[in-house]
């Protein structure tokens, strides 16, 4: 048998609602019965107080013996008992009976109220009072049979219980139907999701027109499916681009080796090896860049540390001689929380790009701007057209000028650089410039 945690939503909601209604009806029945009982007994108490007061006054003044006349139609059981416990007077309904078996009141003039069983009379509500007469103390009893109340109490309670059971069952049935109807769009949504195999990027779930939470859920599912469709589309395009980029050097390498092997005696094998090594280097670069992109896209955790961005830039720009001079304006104390090798990769990619296009000089600057650290690399080349400033960050996208200057590039450098900037919570853009290309990276400062 499944535990409640394994039940369906419909079963759990129905069970919870039915249990809650059942408890409320049970409490209501108990309170209702207690209210009726209290009303009945309070009525008897008030009426009995009046009857016992009249009877006590009569006994105190006359000290009757024999038969007592009944004045109240409900309190028909009247009895007067002396101090020795002998009955000195009673109503006709108690004629010949012994004293009522009720505790005697100890205080004169203070009535006592009891419910007792009287043989032949069933349950009786008895009011007793101690009275002083000229012949001594007397105990006066006035009783009202409550046979009607006790007789119908069982059927009355049974009727209330039956009504509670019927009402609880009706509520459970209504809740079950309501939940089933409310979850009908969810079942439809589940069936439609089960039919999506992954190859159909245009499939969506039906959005009900109710405007409630289920409708919002369907809209959220469709938003997620749209995002997944976009991811699938980009993944397919990426696979196609990777296949193309890898095929070119592999095809060239294979062609060079096949030509060389056809007439090995006529080939300059060191030159063949250098050409093959060039294609292998290009393949290695592409594979290395793809691995970096894959790690960044998968969110692989990389250790970070507190880095002075200005010192890091000055140290890295001095490691390698460039084709053109490099002017450095890097402020000190620009601290960031970053992975040093990733920041170095961004700087290297931007410097290599600037070196390919620069005519006479490259400018590199580091500064703090509000809550951000800003790394800027600028050259005095032909620049980037406004319509191409976003396209240069696409994978395997190289502008014609870049291909003319260097044919062996992979077209992934700027893509990797932007992904690294985003992984550090920042941005990388191709900004406006009076002359040449200007790349600006912004990442959050470390204020510790």
UniProtKB/TrEMBL annotation:
Residues 180-233 form the HAMP domain. Keywords: ATP-binding, Kinase, Membrane, Nucleotide-binding, Phosphoprotein, Transferase, Transmembrane, Transmembrane helix, Two-component regulatory system. It is found in: Cell membrane. SMART domains: HAMP (SM00304), HATPase_c (SM00387), HisKA (SM00388). One of its GO terms (molecular function) is ATP binding. Its main location: membrane. It comes from the Bacteria. Residues 241-447 form the Histidine kinase domain. Pfam families: HAMP, HATPase_c, HisKA. The chain crosses the membrane at residues 12-36, 156-179. Its EC number is 2.7.13.3. It catalyses: ATP + protein L-histidine = ADP + protein N-phospho-L-histidine. InterPro entries: HAMP_dom (IPR003660), HATPase_C_sf (IPR036890), HATPase_dom (IPR003594), His_kinase_dom (IPR005467), HisK_dim/P_dom (IPR003661), HisK_dim/P_sf (IPR036097), Sig_transdc_His_kin-like_C (IPR004358), TCS_sensor_his_kinase (IPR050428). This is histidine kinase. It comes from Actinomadura chokoriensis.
